[in-house]
Amino acid sequence: MTVTIRTLCDTDVDAADAVIVAAYNAPHSRKAALQAYLRLQPDGWMLALQDNEPVGLGGLVNYGPFAYLGMMSVLPAAQGKGIGKQLVSHLLQWAENKKCPTILLDATPAGSYLYKSFDFVEIDRSQHWQHAGVDELTMPSQTNGIVTAISVSDLPSLAAFDTPYFGASRIHVLEAMLGQYPRRAFAVWDTNGQVNGYLFAQERSIGPWVARSMEDAERLLAAALKLPFPGNAISVNISSITNQDAIQLLERYGFKLQRTLSHMRRGPAVERNLRKIYGQTAFALG
């Protein structure tokens, strides 16, 4: 068995998507998401080949103070052969070459054992919530905030608002999200025109979703839930179980907890405020 690892490229996406679907027993293709991730960090995604056949992949998105590792996938038939370990080793070397001091990720219980062998430690828990469908929705009674559609001119203000909570600027992610979902992006503003929060409704999920208060988060959620979602299935990934406001809000709107993951770190601590992040962009992006 010969295993090689190289940088993922555009022509690999179909094969890589097949690996992801098989590895996670996913109900639908992740091709669009993978293409988006590849555009965000073209040199940060690795493909593992066994005898020249794709069997695994994973990637990193570098935010500067930290990078986020995600979408680690190995074909079921190729698992248990050290391929995942080789991928992680390559990705950590990539981060070291980029002088990125800290790596963050969200791991399943099985995956956490692999990451602990690379000196990752659990620092929190993240959660995946899902809603089976929204039939009727009552808008929040408090309407002090002004909810508007996000425009390109709003992005610098949103990025400045977001950075202290996320821990790094991710304006490139916000630009990509607005380009992909131009009619599914909302911001809430106070009466002085200052940002109080924002939300992007993706095709099947909600996030990134960041708000200064639970009330602002609810206004944004109510706006998002009026949009169509395929099969009415909607998911939200909470960055930290310390955000009890997010948990209460999702329960109030009929979301159900599906699974809890280990939020892990390798390297120095990063200053972030996850209590204000109500929904991740994705587990692969934070």
From TrEMBL:
Pfam family, one: Acetyltransf_1
Domain N-acetyltransferase: 3-140
SUPFAM superfamilies with a match to the protein in the record: Acyl-CoA N-acyltransferases (Nat)
Residue spans crossing the bilayer: none
Single GO MF annotation: acyltransferase activity, transferring groups other than amino-acyl groups
InterPro entries: Acyl/Acetyltrans_Enzymes, Acyl_CoA_acyltransferase, GNAT_dom, YitH/HolE_GNAT
Protein name in UniProt: N-acetyltransferase domain-containing protein
Organism: Dictyobacter aurantiacus
